[in-house]
Amino acid sequence: MQTVLFHSTIFGPIHSRRLGVSLGINLAPDDGKVCTFDCLYCEAGFNAQGTGTTGLPPRETVARQLESRLSKMKDASQPLDVITFSGNGEPTVHPDFPAIIDDTLRIRDKYYPEAKVSVLSNSTRIDRPEVREALMKVDNNILKLDSALSGTIHLIDRPNVPGFTAEKVIGELEKFGKDCIIQTMFLRGEYDGKKIDNTTREEVDALIAAYGRIRPREVMVYSIDRTTPAEHIEKVSHEELQSIADRITAETGIPIQVA
User: Which of 146, 209, 217 is nearest to 176 (CA)?
Assistant: First the structure.
């Protein structure tokens, strides 16, 4: 079974195809996964691997390790474009997420004030006022919308949040507007005997309508780049992604980044 990818709270820096030189913050356990989705394509594996034994890193540990790493990087004159909350699950699940964001901004300003702070979130907890307020503080509030059709979301992302629907999440995303970036993973294939394809005309039509409602600052479209825990999942070519992106731009005017 494919298992967790990140075995520390602070990891990298790595080169992100979307964000540049990125230092990662993993607010999930370093030996297990905690997520409100169980995506077929998740590079950290399925939730079935368990939550591990180390638990969520304490706020104080996150701050101490981040400051130590940034201090060493600064002394070594290492470049840094972005500090990115990612890792082995959904970062907003951490009970101290808002306070950790405040700590991160303070430490960033001390060592790399020009670096951006990004959060990669699956959008399942943006209806919570404290999460929304924290996300509004970061430079890149990157929120997932892999489909505008509930059935497809449940096939690809497999949310474990009761009552999670496309309509509900799109309504919450609308509240951010230009204060968010929407990220959509395009893929196709088969899982558990069911066909999966969010590149169809119906799917893209629905996504374009959703993007038009949300009016985000930008839309990031991409496809799988690493091994997926589900077999028989196929990558969508860059040329096809670009064709989808061109159509989104033509119909909405929203800037698109193809990764």
Answer: 217
Residue ranges in the chain assigned as alpha helix (H): 59-75, 97-111, 129-135, 150-156, 166-174, 201-214, 238-252
Per-residue model confidence as pLDDT tens for the chain (259 residues) = 778 888 999 999 988 766 789 999 999 999 999 999 999 999 999 999 999 999 999 999 999 999 999 999 999 999 999 999 999 999 999 999 999 999 999 999 999 999 999 999 999 999 999 999 999 999 999 999 999 999 999 999 999 998 999 999 999 999 999 999 999 999 999 999 999 999 999 999 999 999 999 999 999 999 998 889 999 999 999 999 999 999 999 999 999 999 8
Phi, psi (degrees; rounded to nearest 5) at 152:
-70, -40
Q: Facing residues of 103 across strands?
A: none
Q: What is the pTM of this model?
A: 0.95
Rg of the Cα trace of the chain? 18
